[in-house]
Amino acid sequence: PRAPGPPPDRTAAWFELAVGGDTARAPLPLRLDLLDPSRLPVATAHDPRPAGGANDGYVVGRPAPGTTSHWFWPNTTRLLIDGERDDELRVRLAADLHAWVPAGEVALLAPGTPPPTSLAGTVRIDPRADWVDVRITLARRLPFAVDEEERALTLTVYGATAATDWLIYGPTDPLVRRAAWSQPADRTYRLRIELARPVWGYQTLWATGDDLVLRIRRPPEIDPDRPLRGLLIALDPGHGPPEGRWGPTRLTESEANLAIALRLRHLLERAGARVLLTRTDTSAVGLYDRPRLATEAGAHLFVSIHNNALPDGVNPFENNGTSTFYFHPHSYELARALQEELVAELGLRDLGVGRASLAVVRWPTWFPAALTESMFFMIPEQEAALRDPAVQERIARAHLRALERFARARATAPAPRPETTP
């Protein structure tokens, strides 16, 4: 039987729950529109807020609403919209692949704007002193993805059709071994760059016109005997006031992180490195300003120094230890070295290395970046240890050893000595 009252409005959506002879009914705030598949809306990526502070400066695509960050598009990238849910729009990348973006970070173009497609024309490889630019000629700024392997980068451009009659390497460069394009599906263009050395970092940008540039960073020259000499290492003492938490006796995470970073700076400089600190006192620094400062300065490595806490309702005495996080694949070995050295030094439970969508390791692609959680400062004994200068020094030295280990593993092989005639 129906619940008493007037019949529901047939132009609105209703939710009904029937239990036995009782029925409850409530209107759903649902708006349902149908899109003409032959005239889908076209938009451009348009984050209206300037980069910095709490804003990353990119339009981030996700596999589904509310899921993890996966695609990162500069403003003016053109997007084909074929769905909407709540405050997110669905972007059609390929026939069987979609991304979701915030509705407030796109600008719809005039109705009837043609779908964003383009021929992918000439590919040029342009070696520079500190990087190699790989430039794809396009007529539209199409969405793209970058996938990493240890010694290769693959750039996929959605909406593009291969017309690459010319793939020009330019002057012979020792970093790039081979480049090859493919068309794995209709309107999906793929360019794979094989490298002679492991990926150190990269950036993507729109060049003048609509050409897409993949800028591949040249690894620094490293002396295996003094592996940190000459490198610029960015240290981020995580959390500045009013961020972060505090321990039982009110030691703040901000204070503990800064104390470790200052000791580590001294050790790194003694090892011949140059050091950039994202903060040197208790002043607050914007979340995305930290990796941005490191990128603009040309840092070779980035470490965000933290100590852990747990949310309410979790027993810290059963859930504590040491952990390290990264996001991009070329940062994994750095994170692993940091984790192993910290566990060996402190003897705490090994919580392992994790890939996590944390802003300071997700945003930068120009260098390997990792975030360490050495101790749990909300545990009284560990908070007391973090106040101890000797423990701060031990944590700093573990970070130093890890950075040396990572750099040494990527040291440049010495040039062969010329043969001499006896």
List the main descriptive attributes of the protein structure presented here.
422 residues, alpha+beta, 6-stranded mixed β-sheet, 5-stranded antiparallel β-sheet, 26 strands, flat, disordered N terminus, disordered C terminus
Walkthrough of the structure:
This protein is an alpha+beta fold. Helices cover 18% and strands 35% of the residues. Strands 22-21-23-26-24-25 form a six-stranded mixed sheet, sandwiched between helices. The protein has a five-stranded antiparallel sheet with strand order 8-7-6-3-9, with no helix packed on it. A five-stranded mixed sheet has the order 16-11-12-20-19, with no helix packed on it. A hairpin with a 5-residue loop joins strand 19 (202-206) and strand 20 (212-217). Helix 1 packs across helix 6 and helix 3 (332-346) packs antiparallel against helix 6. The longest helix has 21 residues, at 389-409. It starts with 12 loop residues before the first strand and ends in a 13-residue tail after the last helix. Residues 1-6 and 414-422 have low confidence and may be disordered.
